[in-house]
Amino acid sequence: MSRATDAAAPGPVAERRTVHARPERRPGDGHAGRDARADLRLVPPALAVWATAAWALDAPPGRTAGIAVVCLVAGLILLRLGRARARPDARSARVGSARSVDRVRRSVRAGHRPARARPARRPGPGGVAWRRASVGASLLCVAGAAASAGLHGADVRRGPVPALAREYATVTAEVELTGDPWAAGPRVRGDHATSAAVLVRGEVRRVERGDGTELATRTPVLVVVDTGVRAPGGGGRARWLRLLPSTRLRVSARLAPATAGGDRVAAMLRVRERPAPTVVEEPSGPQRLAGRLRAGLREATDGLPEDARALLPGLVVGDTSRIGPELDEAFEATDLAHTLAVSGSNLTILLALLIGPPGLAQQTERRGLAPRLGLSLRATALFAAALTLAFVVVCRPDPSVLRAAACGAVALLALATGRRRSLVPALATAVLLLVLYDPWLARSYGFLLSVLATGSLLLLAPGWSEALRRRGMPERLAEGLAAAAAAQAVCGPVVAVLSARVSLVAVPCNLLAEIAVAPATVLGFGALVAAPVAMPVAKVLAWCASWPAGWIAGIARTGAGLPGAGVDWPGSWTGALLLAGVTVVVVLLGRRLLRHPWWCGALAVLLVLLVVRPVPLTRVITGWPPPGWRLAMCDVGQGDATVLAAGAGTGVVVDAGPDPTLVDHCLRELGITRIPLVVLTHFHADHVAGLPGVLRGREVAQIETTGFEEPADQAEFVRRQAAEHGVPVTRAVAGERRRTGPLDWRVLWPPPDPAPEPDGPNDASVALLVRSAGLRMLLLGDLEPPAQQELLRSPAAAALARVDVLKVAHHGSAYQDPRLLRLVAPRVALISCGADNPYGHPAPGTVAELRAVGAVVLRTDRDGALAVTGGGRGGAAGELRVARD
Asked: Which of 33, 432, 493, 585 is exposed most, by the fewest CB atoms within 10 A?
């Protein structure tokens, strides 16, 4: 907008002067140019506080106090000097400004058009005074961080609980729960799996020693509850998981030292079954309300499909109790796990629904629900503050939630006062205040990832988005792609430290999932609020939310199922630095490649091939799997998993190993999509715990097992997995013969009933003699000498002479019958064992005995995955060969 005014000067000549009015400013637009540049002045103090807190938590108290005092004194001195220097600078600036005004006035009286006067130089960020004040303020922050962290660290180490933990004392303790319980699944250790447990953080308020002495304390502990221990009031694991924070329990338990160094835990409290735990004090009112809301959301999702039922509570309030290991692994493999941890994105979605886009929050055309409800700007800020507080209570004050709430509070303060603030100072302020309040956040990986992701969205994503738009990419797509790429680039090194893996599908998976996060979150929160008052409405909203939630789960499963979804990476800080360097190089090269669309297209096709890894192409490039392979032994660590080729994309799997991820990866590399039979030789965990990975996304017709169902928990695990996937389970007995494709095999062991009771699960292993293309292959499971001797005395002994390939029993342990090895006399002996395993497998004596009978001995701990090709003795299919992955 412009307007013209005519000024007629006295005299014969009239001078017309046109004055252009400045455009009207909207609130908050006065410093647009300055706002375009990120204000990083608060970043150094925030980083200094973070580093100091992380160091001081377990530093000696004397050293921490000394650092705090020195920084305090030095900071006060620098602030004093900076303030004294700033006074004459300000006085000079005022004098210079007055002189400039006088010069302009004299020029106007003389009839000259004045040149634009330069403003007098004021002391700014480059001045000495400002630098001194900045350093002084940073030192004061460091002093505060050292003092706060020192006190928090000393608080964990003091009191009677750490000393009792070092003695592994049995105590009766009164514990106040400070977090939500979570389930820890069983872990495979050797041939058995540890029992599942419920874990929850708490504070010991009173502890009674064995001599009856009762001591008051306030010590943070990690409570570990075996699933066999009954919950207060009766019930098992499910009731333990429903306990709410602020509940006080009286438990009989054994103390043990904390295993995680540097954590906010002074000891581990292992709950004993007798006497049963009792509730001393019920949870607080806000926690009961939050618990009812979360329980209502779970009830509203009960009738949804499996993935949506498990995922929706996690997306809305971080409740991951229903998410199984398979879905959890898929989210980790695609770097979508952040969607299950309530973060600033959840709060941002809710606030955006209320106030609309933040850039329009103070303008007359602001959007969102607030103007439609008739709320003023300040009322909107107050309402949003109440929403933020409710968000923290319902979602629990986890580090990511606290960071989101702190940033939201700073932004809401700016909105209420009518001033524009940079979001980077808001984030730095939030980090500084939160770490000063709770120094343990300085060692939280979740807090670190949350801050890094937010910082990348504020600093990197806008520039990357603008660059993509300049090259013709649609605005929405450019913003989404830039946000996903920036977050991955910054957070990738930290994720690599945690998972020892780099995801190659993280950016596209996050981009595709992002379009469904907002509707799932909004509808899910609607169901959360509606559940206590109108459950039918909540169920309708949950059903609507199940569609975007199912989309997110499908993206995670599809991305994780790709053969090249990720690559192994060193899980150390050295590996993180290496990945950061690689990321910088990729970003710099990417900026140049954006100028060449053809190169970008070619690299995109190459990346797709690298991720999809079609088996024919992979075989040409890597040689794995070798063409015509007959038997493949997967590298699954300390366990067994063998695959017998039965046609294109078809294989018989013998044992599943201890890890679902490893066996699934092996089967994908081999291109196995159909499995007519899974043989589980016995029920030790290192042979059956990986069964979910075998069943994942494949057509499995049948599972065959031994009849000796020990260990009972692992036998039940197999039956449960089979029932969930609709796969029948049968029993293998000696004398059974079967054929599929080019394979035929005979079951040699165990004998049918009646049979003597085996000495243990190993001696009940299913043993197979397999024939394929002239090859004779003997798979002995984990048979030990008693069963091996019985096998030598059985009618099947004559068929064992001079086989081509032997899968050595029990990972090559020393428990072998030499007569059986001499009778078998294999050409190739394959041993499946884990690197540096604590059992000494394979035994040197067993390896020497195999070599003495003329066998070539190969082992997965040194040679990796193995594949056998060729034909049998004197056959026409060619010489027997073994390929290594």
From this structure: 33
